[in-house]
């Protein structure tokens, strides 16, 4: 049962994503969005504003693109782990393309009164989805090199907190609705779970 728990988790994440997509496509104002947006509302020129504005840059395409390049070079030149390098590259490219395709299909307009510049459509959040995919793979690469379980847990929890903060920062900066973030996390989680299982399943056959 535990062996296949990832299937149940991935399925639940997909159900959540499709439920949110249906709600967004209905065009109705969502109480969840209003409540969470107010909860994480920040004023300009405050410490919270500066903090979240700094955090949100960690999920930008430039940062993730540069970070992905470094990871690919590390796997290629230093580790010579070509299978992991291929999965990392395909995983990042596929996640980004999928996110862009869904955004252009749903065409949800971003919230008004942005606290920072943002382009493109809103649903699902690329920072949340692609950020979760990227930082999950980076966490895996780091944890793979660590021997102690306690340190592995610390690294894992640290990256989870970072991804959550990036998601919250997009709400605080008023460039995404909370449902955009939740949908990005849900689809990103289902995607990375599937990617990891394919990586484990196909690895021995390819190598």
Automatic annotation (TrEMBL):
InterPro entries, alphabetized: PAP2/HPO (IPR000326), PAP2/HPO_sf (IPR036938)
SUPFAM superfamilies given in the database record: Acid phosphatase/Vanadium-dependent haloperoxidase
Stretches assigned to the Phosphatidic acid phosphatase type 2/haloperoxidase domain: 85-196
Protein name (Swiss-Prot/TrEMBL): Undecaprenyl-diphosphatase
Sorted UniProt keywords: Membrane, Transmembrane, Transmembrane helix
Cited SMART domains: acidPPc (SM00014)
Oxidoreductase is among the record's keywords: no
Membrane-spanning intervals of the chain: 57-77, 82-102, 122-143, 150-169, 181-199
Pfam families: PAP2
Signal peptide: none
PANTHER family: AT30094P (PTHR14969:SF13), SPHINGOSINE-1-PHOSPHATE PHOSPHOHYDROLASE (PTHR14969)
Gene source species: Peribacillus simplex
């Amino acid at each position: 049962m535990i062996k296949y728990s990832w299937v149940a988790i991935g399925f639940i994440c997909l159900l959540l994503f499709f439920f949110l997509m249906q709600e967004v496509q209905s065009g109705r104002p969502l109480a969840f969005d209003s409540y969470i947006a107010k909860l994480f509302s920040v004023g300009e020129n405050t410490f919270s504003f500066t903090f979240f504005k700094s955090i949100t840059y960690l999920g930008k395409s430039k940062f993730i693109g540069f970070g992905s390049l470094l990871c690919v070079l590390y796997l290629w030149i230093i580790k010579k782990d070509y299978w992991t390098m291929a999965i990392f590259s395909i995983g990042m490219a596929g996640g980004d393309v999928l996110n862009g395709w869904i955004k252009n299909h749903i065409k949800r307009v971003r919230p008004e009164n942005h606290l920072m510049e943002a382009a493109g459509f809103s649903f699902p959040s690329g920072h949340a989805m692609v950020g979760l995919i990227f930082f999950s793979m980076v966490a895996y690469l780091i944890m793979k090199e660590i021997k102690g379980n306690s340190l592995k847990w610390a690294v894992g929890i640290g990256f989870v907190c970072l991804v959550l903060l990036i998601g919250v920062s997009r709400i605080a900066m008023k460039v995404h609705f909370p449902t955009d973030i939740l949908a990005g996390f849900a689809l990103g989680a289902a995607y990375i779970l599937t990617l990891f299982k394919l990586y484990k399943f196909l690895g021995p056959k390819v190598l």
